[in-house]
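ARCHIVE CARD
Drawer: 12
Card no.: 0347
Subject: one protein chain, sequence and derived structure
Cross-reference: see card 0346
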Amino acid sequence: YFSILLGAYALHEGLWALLSGGDPLAVWDGIEYTVFYAVPYGCLFGLGLRWPGMSRTAAFVWAAAGLSVATLILAAMGTWPNTTLAAVHKYPPHLAYFWYGLGMSHLVYGLGQRLPRLPERIEKIITWISASSLWIYLWHIPGLQVARKIVSHVHFGEWSFLVMWTLTAAFAMTVTLLQQGVVQELVQRAREE
């Protein structure tokens, strides 16, 4: 299973290098927005499917491997510790981001296995955020633009990043909640007709 995932990702990186020559703008858009996004995210998703049967130790091993390889790749790219220089490799995700995501997700999974059961209200919030993550992600894009405008016009000093992050998250979650309410209302009305 892991060999298939690793092979698919290696093929992805090879195809990317062959078609783009290292220049992300040179790749045909249809390929870029399907293969070059679907393969790395699909591999991470496939690995996540194995989590229910994964031991806590195995999760920490994957976490250590992922974070170590990501650090080595960033260092080899000459961007460590200034990781902002690696941003050009973020979309679609390349090796450094892939391994970072692999490491962090397994770290969170491994730590989460040891947590005591959360209160029901908190569990409901986490479940809603998890179930709504795609829409929260999509709505964070305009939310970030709004937050940047606010932060650029109001001086928050050293709190600017925190204010921008809070405004973006609040915007994305609020709009997602409103959207879900509108959609549920429309579906309910359609069923009644």
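Annotation on reverse: The longest helix spans residues 160-192. Residues 57 and 110 are 7 Å apart (CA to CA).
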